Amino acid sequence: MSENTWEIMKGMELGDVELQMALQCAPVITGVKVSNLLNIELSGYRQMVEILKDSDICMYTLGATCGRVNVFIYNAAKLRAFVQRDDVQRLMSELGYEDMELSEILAVFREKYQQYLKSRGRFTSKQPAHEDQACGDGSFGKEWFPHEMGLLLGYPPEDVEGFILQNGRNALCSGYWKVYGDAESKRRTFHIFECAEERLIQFLSNGLHMRDIMGMYTASRNAA
Q1: How far apart, in Å, are the Cα atoms of 135 and each of 64, 75, 122, 172, 221?
Q2: CB-count exposure of residue 151 (10 Å: 0-12, 13-18, 19+)
Q3: What is the pLDDT of residues 29-67, one digit of tens each?
């Protein structure tokens, strides 16, 4: 993040839902990435739903825990095309997926993701307003992780597979994910993501609302 953008952020409310969407989801909002994972306070959930309404960006709630909610934000057409790639399906199959329909993949992933959180001493509800929310201390130690999350986030299969085989070590470089192949190309991709994040922060600082920003990018994609 540039020094100028950092200075702009100092005058903004860090917990604001619109700012968090810019910080966590700028790549998918601007169309340079198929998806992002958004973690916000439960109190901001309804505002997020309202912001996404009428846009071409979809949401899939993964669960709520410790007063926060995890939401998978994605471009359905782009993500569907990505998971249909042979190299992606091969790895998804190795990770236990049989049905390659996106809706089925997301349903299975949500269950596995919640199991992962439970293994770390956390209870996760499917619905953000569920009354049975609790938070543990993660004292169960390091447990298995649903590595398909990387694929659903659009990470290159060679990097997801490399992470699995190397147990997260020996990466060539790291940014939005750990890289195990073609590091220079991935660095350029990371820079594109960073530029998208800064652009949205600047839009917000200039008085635009996130729903207006979403509408602008949706209209641009529909016109293409």
Answers
A1: 10, 31, 5, 35, 40
A2: buried
A3: 999 999 999 999 999 999 999 999 999 999 999 998 889
pLDDT exceeds cutoff 70 at 89: yes
Angle in degrees, 0-180, between the axes of helices 183-205 and 3-10, rounded to the nearest 10: 40
Q: Is the pTM of this model over 0.85?
A: yes
What is Dmax (Cα atoms) for the chain?
51
Q: CA-CA distances (angstroms) from residue 52 to 48, 73, 98, 161, 211?
A: 6, 9, 30, 32, 7
**Cα–Cα distance for residue pair 21/134, rounded to 1 Å:** 25
- pLDDT for residue 138 is more than 70: no
3-state secondary structure at position 158: helix
CB 65 within 8 A of CB 71: no
Strand partners, 174: 178
